[in-house]
Write a structure and sequence with these properties.
Protein name (chain B): Ectoine/hydroxyectoine ABC transporter ATP-binding protein EhuA
Number of helices of chain A: 13
Radius of gyration of chain B: 18 Å
Radius of gyration of chain A: 29 Å
CATH class of one domain in chain A: Mainly Alpha
Shape of chain A: flat
CATH architecture of one domain in chain A: Orthogonal Bundle
Number of strands of chain A: 2
Strand order of the largest sheet of chain A: 1-2
Number of strands of chain B: 12
Structural class of chain B: alpha/beta
Pfam families (chain B): ABC_tran
CATH superfamily of one domain in chain A: MetI-like
Helix content of chain A: over 70%
Distance between the termini of chain B: 35 Å
Number of domains of chain B: 1
Strand content of chain A: under 5%
Main location (chain B): membrane
Strand content of chain B: 25-35%
CATH topology of chain B: Rossmann fold
Oligomer: heterodimer
Largest sheet of chain A: 2 strands, antiparallel
Structural class of chain A: mainly alpha
Shape of chain B: globular
Organism (chain B): Vreelandella nigrificans
CATH topology of one domain in chain A: MetI-like fold
Largest sheet of chain B: 6 strands, mixed
Subcellular location (chain B): Cell inner membrane
Number of helices of chain B: 9
Chain lengths: 314, 253
């Protein structure tokens, strides 16, 4: 029955064959309704924030670029950059140790990651800050040569160096796992092809494996970078003047708690936004030669609204 | 510059599984040797031993004058340092079943990086050679394409050109057409055919009996880690003596 209908379709359609058929896309009315409702709620929320006098936006504007706050922003940036650079460098070393064929290096790397992921960052921070209680002096003692260099620990461990130490050691443990996952994601075929061409192990890693691994390393690494920027706020507990501690200093004097927390919030949002954009650009670079390119949020919005757009070149 | 390959008494085990059992094989310079056999017969392992991608347990493999992977002192074989093995591999080209092009490099970069970085040749010389090789495999127009933009057959031809860019003395092919759609097999075999005519020493693991018949100077049939039968195409393909060879050929012909 259905078979007959199918074979007859051609002749039945005969009366319309002179006109080409036009496809009419489905209208997504529901989509527009939800978009309108969501926008309405967003506007209401914005309205309540802007018009709530308790935020004291004029005070926020006043403190946003004050010298103390700017010094705090600078300290937060320094801590983030230092801990990320050193943390990922250490993480790369740990990842390579873990993937090596030397069982001792594998065990040490595993133990490090296990230990530094097990202890809360806040505890590590206090421990490093008080390390002088454990080791009052730091000294380099070489066999046969004797004492080469020595300094009291208290002159080395400042709030800043304790913070950097804790953040770097903590970050390295997480970075190691991210980098290791990226390297493992590159198939053995790439390694063999590189070997067969005579590339040595270092060239294979730096020119063939890592550039490809970056594609899978970058999204979680971007998470880490943004997470690390916010994590630096914990250093306020050892009285290091980062962004959070700087606004705390001011509001403990003036009691303008909410406006100053808003100042810190705005700066954190601004800094993480810059990092997000940076992540997008770097991901595009390492996505070369691969079909699925990450899409920017505005491309989705353009698609949704049906705007024509020029597609980026690969 | 072709070299000969001499394999003597090679053994290789993976755990308790013996995959190569005292294999002897001699491939004269400029000749083509095709290795046939069912999967698991050890044919790919033998090929991978020739450039030391697999370490052998006993025996010797020589390419030209070079003892691959080892240094002989008296009756002892000392395994070479990695950089020395890497240097030996520069004169042994290899083509893989799954092409293994470097996806983050363009076609041209795939060809030139190894000669420049490994053999420290000048970029101008290597570029000229790369364009000549791409023309030879029929892909002169695709120098700046990304590997993923090419069909399987085109990728495999690039992989052959990449191996040739190192100017090797021998070429190893590990089932070069097994991952290709049937209509793309011909273009890859054509490139290999012309390479054979040019006098390159070639060892080819394949299931393409027609290609073996046409191009091979010597056909090896392997099963269970041993060479069951060896000889010219006529003797092995048309008048096999062993029942295992006959059984295998009846399934693939």
């Amino acid at each position: 029955m259905s078979n007959r209908a199918f074979t007859n379709a051609g002749s039945n359609a005969g009366m319309t064959t002179s006109e080409p058929l036009i496809v009419v896309p489905l209208k997504h009315y529901g989509r527009w309704c939800w978009a309108a409702l969501t926008l309405l709620l967003a506007v209401a929320a914005m309205n309540s924030i802007v018009n709530n006098a308790n935020f004291e936006w004029s005070l926020v504007a006043h403190y946003l670029t004050s010298a103390t706050v700017l010094a705090g922003v600078w300290m937060t940036i320094k801590l983030t950059v230092l801990s990320l650079l050193l943390g990922f460098a250490g993480g790369a070393v740990l990842a390579l140790m873990r993937l090596s064929s030397n069982p001792v290096l594998v065990a040490v790397s595993w133990t490090y990651t296990w230990l530094f992921r097990a202890v809360p960052l806040l505890v590590q921070l206090f421990l490093w800050y008080n390390v002088a209680a454990l080791y009052p002096h730091l000294a380099i003692n070489l066999p046969w040569v004797g004492l080469v260099w020595s300094a009291p620990m208290n002159s080395i461990i400042s709030p800043f160096s304790a913070a950097v130490l804790a953040l770097v050691l903590h970050q390295a443990a997480y970075a190691a796992e991210i980098i290791r996952a990226g390297i493992l994601g590159i198939g053995s075929g790439q390694n063999e092809a590189a070997k067969a061409l005579g590339f040595d192990r270092w060239q294979t890693m730096s020119r063939i494996v890592l550039p490809q691994a970056m594609r899978t390393i970058l999204p979680p690494a971007g998470n880490e970078v943004i997470g690390q920027l916010k994590t630096t706020a914990v250093v306020s507990v050892i009285a290091l003047q980062d962004l959070l501690y700087s606004v705390q200093i001011i509001y403990q004097r003036t009691y303008e708690v909410i406006p100053l927390l808003m100042v810190a919030t705005l700066w954190y949002i601004a800094m993480t936004s810059v990092l997000s954009i940076g992540q997008y650009i770097v991901e595009r670079h390492f996505g070369r030669g691969v079909a699925a390119q990450g899409r920017a949020p505005w491309e989705y919005v353009n698609d949704f609204l049906g705007f024509k757009q020029k597609r980026g070149k690969i | 510059m072709s070299a000969d390959i001499n394999i003597q008494g090679v053994n290789k085990s993976f755990g308790f599984n013996k995959v190569l059992d005292s294999v002897d094989l001699s491939v004269p310079a400029g000749s083509v040797c095709v290795i046939l056999g069912p999967s698991g017969s050890g044919k790919s392992t033998l090929l991978r031993c020739i450039n030391h991608l697999e370490r052998i347990d006993a025996g010797t493999i020589r390419v030209g004058d070079e003892l691959i992977g080892y240094r002989q002192e008296g009756n002892r074989l000392f395994e070479l340092q990695e950089y020395k093995i890497a240097r030996q591999r520069t004169s042994i080209g290899m083509v893989f079943q799954h092409f293994n092009l470097f996806p983050h490099w363009t076609v041209l970069q795939n060809l030139i990086e190894a000669p420049i970085r490994v053999k420290r040749e000048s970029k101008a010389v290597v570029m000229e050679r790369a364009h000549r090789l791409l023309k030879r495999v029929g892909l002169a127009e695709r120098a700046n394409a990304w590997p993923r933009e090419l069909s399987g057959g085109q990728q495999q031809r690039v992989a052959i050109a990449r191996a040739l860019a190192m100017e090797p003395d021998v070429m190893l092919f590990d089932e070069p057409t097994s991952a290709l759609d049937p209509e793309l097999v011909g273009e890859v075999l054509e490139v290999m055919r012309s390479l054979a005519k040019s006098g390159m020493t070639m060892v080819v693991v394949t299931h393409e009996i027609g290609f073996a018949r046409e191009v091979a100077d010597q056909i090896i049939f392997m099963d269970g880690g041993v060479i069951v039968e060896a000889g010219s195409a006529e003797t092995v393909l048309d008048a096999p003596r062993h029942s295992r060879t006959k059984a295998f050929l009846s399934t693939v012909l």
